[in-house]
Amino acid sequence: MTTQAHPEPAEVGITDQNLINNYFIGPRASNMPDFRANINTVLDELLKTRLDYYHEDNKPERQKAFQKVRDNFGDVVRKVPQLLGEHSVPFWSPRYEAHMCTDLTMPSLLGYFMTMLYNPNNVALEASPLTTVAELKVGEQLCEMFGYRTPHTPAGTRNEEPLSWDYITCHGTVANLESIWVARNLKFYPLVLHQAINERKLQFIKDKFEVETWDLLNLKPKTVLDLPNLLYEQYDISSDFLKDALDPYTIQSYGLIPEKTDEFYKSLKPMKFILSKTRHYSWPRDLVSIAGLGSANLLEVEIDDDVHIDIKELDDKLKKCKESQNPVCAVVAIIGSTEKGAVDRLSEILKVREKWQKEGLSFLVRADAAWGGCFATMLHRDLERGRPTLGDSDKASVPALTLRRETEDDLLELQNADSITVDPHKAGYVLYLAGSLVYKDGRMSKPGAGAMSTWLSNQTIGLDPDGYRKLLGQASFTSSRLSVRYAVQADFRAKTRDSFICVPFNRLPQERRGHAFNSPKAEDDREEIRRLILGKPNSELLQDAEAVKLLHKLGSDTNINGFALKFPISRDSFFLSARLSSLLKWLYYISECPLR
């Protein structure tokens, strides 16, 4: 039998897609040889480190009893990875679309693995000399990504602003909790200072000014943060003396209702936090109640049809707070909601804050950007924004899609938020236990493996147009193409229709103009999508500017495509409910992506 000679495979060029693929082990573990080699390098260095430390020490002999322990240990190590493989979700596969689970970058995996072997504790510099520096570097990277001022900000740029600050938390919920503590304490600080002036060591400046409770509760955040420095400059009060004078009256010492109350506390009404209904479930349950303010004082604002906070209702709630003299600690913008990826109109929220500050109502504006924060890497800060472009489309088999203009505007406004929560372990493709809390003003102010994992991934891939922007841009393109399937499932002009209807949460362009989901205008949009996009390969799509423009209008703000399924109206509601339940169970079954 003769064998046919096969031609040598053509060399694959390093396109953007190939470059991004090399950041990950891959769905078929194509980069496992490199990952394994790097793991071996880490273990070799661990061995060398241990042998080099007092190398003259005797090496303990391995006793016979160790053989049994080693056998048991080996059995566990063989069995548990097998169980993990059989019973974990296939987060590394593009076929798996559920939850905020993605493949992880190899730099983040290697950074975490190499660091956990040394078990550094970043709470103390002497216990974590390298990983503390890594955390500081991550902080600077994230501050710069959001447009905050850092020690590396060019001279003459934002010089009037204070230096920002960031640190790694275990996850975004803890970052949000700590931000609430800061907002609460910042609100109480002028009251505590007033009480110390009235009753104790600061009485010598008592006759210099008079203020009302409401005025103290509505000082601008910068004014409150400037108070210690002003007291030093004008009255020569040192920070140590001030701390000693204030400690007996702080809520950290006596709780929300101090033992020694004056008229200021007697007139104090419940403080409010305001955010939209797309907020994470942990806000009322774990955050406001833990901070002692009570979940009843979290005011939820309705959302519009694009799942963004309703700015008019926000304005109305602030008006009521001013009229009733309820202090507002913070208004929180959701930058990438957990279920829909929706980005609140932060630019409009900041305008509302400016309006009410002029009316004597002051509060922090913070951004819960746990999911959406990393999309700031996609911004073109020095170029025209909002153009529906596909990056490097001549080379990339999967091009990068830019963000919508409105989303870019709101991500750019993160530089004017007082604080930001961002989870690199979400859209940053790094391991869990890597949340982060970023402060615009550093005066507001754990294990080391998470910091090292994030730093190594940021350093290797880059928080710039050539790094995470391309990675997330390609993800945005794929997400928009996937949303096309949901958008065209409903066909109200077809003679035969499916037994159910798919209703995407993200509206079609004509729906945003006020036309109904089943209107002729919306159906025109679907026809355009079918004609220009559906079924077209990427190479053909790239050549069609009209198709690219339409694709840019579809899908989520930040890559999460939600949808609902419904049946045509039935008189038998029980029968309809049973059918819908069966449909959802079937969808769950086919979407499980079993590993075996």
UniProtKB/TrEMBL annotation:
Pfam family, one: Pyridoxal_deC
InterPro entries: GrpII_AminoAcid_Decarb, PyrdxlP-dep_de-COase, PyrdxlP-dep_Trfase, PyrdxlP-dep_Trfase_major
Record GO biological process: carboxylic acid metabolic process
Keyword terms of this UniProt record: Lyase, Pyridoxal phosphate, Transferase
GO MF terms, alphabetically ordered: carbon-carbon lyase activity; pyridoxal phosphate binding; transferase activity
Gene3D superfamilies registered for this protein in UniProt: Type I PLP-dependent aspartate aminotransferase-like (Major domain)
Needed co-factor(s): pyridoxal 5'-phosphate
UniProt keyword Lyase present: yes
Similarity remark: Belongs to the group II decarboxylase family.
Protein's name in the database: Pyridoxal phosphate-dependent transferase
Organism: Aspergillus tamarii
